[in-house]
Specification:
165 residues; alpha/beta; Diaminopimelate Epimerase, Chain A, domain 1; TLP18-3, Psb32 and MOLO-1 founding protein of phosphatase; single chain; TPM_dom; 13% strand
Amino acid sequence: MAIQRIIKHLITGSMAVRAAFPAHSLHAIEQAIHEAEAKHAGQVRFAVEASLDFVALWRNQTASERAIDMFSQLRVWDTEHNNGVLIYLLLADRDVEIVADRGIHIKLGKAGWEEICLEMESAFRLGKFEMGVIKGIHAVSSHLQRYFPKKTTSVNELSDKPIIL
């Protein structure tokens, strides 16, 4: 357990999320997901969390572990074709994690998702949160479009609305 990480999490609150993602940014992200999903049969969710609680920090929970928890809790895994993807941002750590269901993960693998995360984190370091997320959505969607093209019977199984945890 690193004391610096604990302090960073304790001082990063919901106001930090609102500063990074004002209402217009959340709307733009929702639109980007909606427009991207019109081109493929996959499901994309975006969730942002300001910080972890003290118990999670004490257990030294990583952003990756938290993203997997959220993938489950948000039921991103519960899609007909196992093609749900969660883009998770832990703001206090400036850490992006992409968790993909087995139907799409097997096609791309961890390295492919990590590349997208690194590009998003680069934009975040410049303070360009909305742009970084939208670029990430487009990158994820390009893979979903390749492996899960849109069908006339495709339905939107998960909400496109960004989640603030």
